[in-house]
Amino acid sequence: MGAPEATITLGEQPLTVEDVVAVARHGARVEIADLAWERVRQAREVIDSLAEDTVAHYGVSTGFGALATTHIPHEKRARLQRSLVRSHAAGTGPEVEDEVVRALMLLRVKTLASGRTGIREETLRLYLALLNEGISPVVHEFGSLGCSGDLAPLAHCALALIGEGRVRVRGGDPVESREALEGAGLTPVELHEKEGLALVNGTDGMLGMLCLAIHDLRGLLAVADVACGMSVEGLLGTDDVFAADLQELRPHPGQAASAANLRAVLADSPIRDSHRDPTACTRVQDAYSLRCAPQVHGGARDTLEHAALVAGRELQAAVDNPVVTLDGRVESNGNFHGAPVAYVLDFLAIVAADVASMSERRTDRFLDPARNHGLPPFLADDPGTDSGLMIAQYTAAGMVSELKRLASPASVDSIPSSAMQEDHVSMGWASARALRRSVDILARVLTIELLTAARGIALRAPLRPAPATGAAIDALAAVTRVEPGEDRILAHDIEPAYQAVLDGSVRAAVEQVVGGLR
Length: 518
Fold this sequence. Notes:
It catalyses: L-histidine = trans-urocanate + NH4(+). Belongs to the PAL/histidase family. Keywords: Histidine metabolism, Lyase. About 55% of the residues lie in helices and about 5% in strands. The chain is mainly alpha-helical. The chain has a 3-stranded antiparallel sheet. Strands 1-2 form a two-stranded parallel sheet. Strands 3-5 form a two-stranded antiparallel sheet.
């Protein structure tokens, strides 16, 4: 985590995607507003009033899932909540990334602070302290069906509250939870009625990963426009098709934004000016991967904004079952079902795959002398002796194939659970895990296009690139080698360039020239 940013206060206004990123990725602190604390106390009074009721109340005096009809006597209820957390902490496989765990924890704290779950103030204060102290429970890759929430991941987090399970403190080696709590001056809690359910019953893991992906994809789609602009320039394509009046004939906002980016990136390009004369340039139309980029990148943007709309609604939600209503009832509901989040997670994996697919096609055009308009085969220094960027395209193609597999939607699957009580589930956690991998791969595919286009543009010398594309090339050159020449280890060129894409250096360099990209 980087240096903490401004404190995020829950209960004053809805969380945003950027708030989630600030806490999950950059270590921003979290506070809960006084009014929210009052709502928490009021909801707890409702739960306490039901504890002695002779009428069964789900999660208060009954078992869970298919055991919801089993009455639990008062003397066993602390054990009931403890057993719920232990039994649901059934994850397995590799550890989930720290930023995902922190996002999940933030979103659970947000719901607990809503006053709709009946959590005790003592328990919520401990959860908040874990987040602010950088104590991240060890959560595993497998265990959530995305319905009844992300049960196993949330249960592994809840274990830390009772001093069980393992955690990492600010990214350190795993330690026992009780040891980490003692080191931070914190004391485990004993869970009371309803608290176990409140801690595990939410779509927080799915939503956290969606928020992180939305943030990252917004940056990568701008980079996709930069990479495309460089490819159009280096392949002697035309920017005429990106004219605003042509784009307005199909009034999708994302398409207009992408085309505007491409016009800005290609503005004042000496390479483009070198073939503006229609008598000297015999090509009538560029290939689709160049000409249709605003339609594809724009469709991706519009899909991303739909996903952001869903995320915004979810960030205002209080997902638990049962819930304490505003008028003091305790009611069962189905708001824990992950379908709304799962669908858009799958949509974005499709977006990542298709944007990367178009990028790889532009990379491939640079390497084929039949289509690259005068550049050497594979942009090699000495074709035959040197292979140039031949295998970089193989790498991109392999990654695009992987993206197509990851784009197969998990949300269309369902395997019934809990003795058919939970007979339809969302599989949204799997969608989220696939999307995280997809976002990372998209960044790598775009990196290869950027490096390929940079070399292609260099081979157009003495013609100079546009100011904006030149700035992108300079940003890459600051961290890796982009100039043509004798073969070298390409992996050593790709990795630092990929980091420059991830950290925003490439986009920032272009924006220094053209202003903010859309």
